[in-house]
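Backbone-to-sequence.
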């Protein structure tokens, strides 16, 4: 792994020209955006503390943690029990509610707030898993694990393209694709290992609990 400062220095050395600090900094930022459009890396996941649901007539909401890029999953927490929440569009909820029924929850994301239907009960909490923007800067924060080479190659390609050196831009663009594919493969393998462990941990749906009686999650 490398810091943003170290990657910027490496790119400057690759380009072999001075005076392009601004271009290189911009290139690193664009690299992070491009990488995240291709794959959701585990390093960007956040598992925040449970958020209390605000109960109000026809408006049960929970505030999504600030700064998120994308909502991955939502679950309702009631005491020792947890139920997954279907993420729907606001239009879908307007058309289906109240026909949704009381045996399952769904909701939608509106400007940093998650709206629930049907209504949870007082004391319920919600658990969000969100994807955050990939970011690092300066000398103290290292690049996300496994992404230093991809970021460096993308930034080098970007700067070469800005300098109108197409052969070098293309060559480093190819190196970026290779480095990114390897990083994605490594991340997917890590996810698969994590999922194989999670398969041993029971997560009941609300329908399961209603049909079989109370069951605590291990």
């Amino acid at each position: 792994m490398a810091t943003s400062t170290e990657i910027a220095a490496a790119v400057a050395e690759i380009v072999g020209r001075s005076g392009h600090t601004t271009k290189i900094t911009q290139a690193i930022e664009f690299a992070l955006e491009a990488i995240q459009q291709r794959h959701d890396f585990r390093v960007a996941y956040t598992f925040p503390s449970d958020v209390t649901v605000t109960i109000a007539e026809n408006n049960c909401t929970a505030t999504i943690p600030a700064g998120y890029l994308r909502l991955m999953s939502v679950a309702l927490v009631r005491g020792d029990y947890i139920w997954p929440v279907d993420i729907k569009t606001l239009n879908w909820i307007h058309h289906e509610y109240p026909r949704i029924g009381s045996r399952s929850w769904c909701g939608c994301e509106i400007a940093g707030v998650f709206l629930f239907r049907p209504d949870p009960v007082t004391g319920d909490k919600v658990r969000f898993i969100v994807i955050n923007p990939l970011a690092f800067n300066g000398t103290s924060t290292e690049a996300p694990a496994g992404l230093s080479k991809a970021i460096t190659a993308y930034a080098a390609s970007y700067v070469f393209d800005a300098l109108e050196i197409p052969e070098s831009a293309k060559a480093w663009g190819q190196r970026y694709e290779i480095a990114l594919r390897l990083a994605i493969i490594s991340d997917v393998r890590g996810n698969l290992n994590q999922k194989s462990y999670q398969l041993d941990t029971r997560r009941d749906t609300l329908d399961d609990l209603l049909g079989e009686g109370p069951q605590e999650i291990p």
